[in-house]
């Protein structure tokens, strides 16, 4: 396994719609990317990481939002598609491509997502709470959408101002 470099906003790859993972892309090369992404996410202490965040413009992400018993729940979702969502949750959100920035974001409370696993098999995942928030956030990354775009206009302006300050002091690369 190897650690990958996480790109920060406003790297163009984060603002680009990623392309689907094709049927002949499944195999050792993809498995390596996935295990490297898990390692990169764990060392950055994140709960989700999408391929565009490591500079790979493909529609896939990894996540590990612990279940109610606090156990690890590692998931790989390739070519994710949200097929159902309902309810609403309001809470703090962060992103590994926005180091140190946390902001309140409104999201749906429950999602059902259809995707493929690393073997190319179709899977369906049904989640609520933080796991649902994570799935929505990471699926957005596949669409070139960052959590800044999901904030209210006022919070987005505050966030952008803070990023500018951090860029000036060199804390944001
Ligand atoms: Ni993110």
List keywords for this structure.
alpha+beta; 3 helices; about 170 residues; five-stranded antiparallel sheet; two-stranded antiparallel sheet; binds nickel (II) ion; Peptide Deformylase
Written overview of the protein:
The protein is of the alpha+beta class and 173 residues long. Helices cover 27% and strands 26% of the residues. A hairpin with a 5-residue loop joins strand 6 and strand 7. The two termini are 25 Å apart. The longest helix is centred in the N-terminal third of the chain and has 16 residues. The protein has 3 helices and 7 strands. The mean pLDDT is 96. It has a 5-stranded antiparallel sheet, sandwiched between helices. Strands 4-5 form a two-stranded antiparallel sheet. It binds nickel (II) ion. Nickel (II) ion (NI) binds next to helix 2.
The tally of structural domains comes to 1
> In CATH's first tier, which class applies?
Alpha Beta
- The residue-averaged pLDDT reads 96
Q: Could you name the CATH homologous superfamily?
A: Peptide deformylase
CATH architecture descriptor: Alpha-Beta Complex
Extract low-pLDDT stretches: none
Q: Write down the secondary-structure element order.
A: HEEEEEEEHH
Count the strands?
Answer: 7
List the topology elements.
Layout: H1 28-43, E1 48-50, E2 60-64, E3 74-86, E4 89-93, E5 103-107, E6 110-116, E7 122-128, H2 129-142, H3 153-168
Antiparallel strand pairs: 1-2, 2-3, 3-6, 4-5, 6-7
This protein binds nickel (II) ion.
Nickel (II) ion is lined by residues 95-97, 137, 141.
What's the short story on this structure?
The chain contains 3 helices and 7 strands. With 173 residues, it is α+β, with helices and mostly antiparallel strands. The two termini are 25 Å apart.
């Amino acid at each position: 396994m190897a650690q990958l470099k996480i790109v920060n906003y406003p790297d163009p790859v984060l603002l680009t719609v990623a392309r689907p993972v094709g049927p002949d892309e499944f195999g050792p090369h993809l498995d390596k990317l996935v295990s490297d992404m898990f390692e990169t996410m764990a060392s950055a202490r994140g709960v989700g990481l999408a391929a565009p965040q490591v500079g790979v413009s493909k529609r896939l992400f990894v996540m590990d939002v612990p279940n109610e018993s606090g156990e690890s729940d590692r998931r790989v979702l390739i070519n994710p598609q949200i097929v159902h969502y309902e309810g609403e949750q309001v809470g703090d959100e962060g992103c590994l491509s926005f180091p140190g920035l946390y902001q309140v974001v409104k999201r749906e409370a429950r999602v059902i997502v259809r995707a493929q696993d690393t073997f190319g098999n179709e899977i369906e995942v049904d989640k609520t709470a933080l796991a649902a928030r994570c799935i929505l956030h990471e699926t957005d990354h596949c669409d070139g959408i960052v959590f800044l775009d999901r904030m209210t206009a006022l919070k987005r302006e505050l966030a952008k101002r803070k990023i500018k300050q951090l860029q000036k002091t060199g804390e944001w690369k």
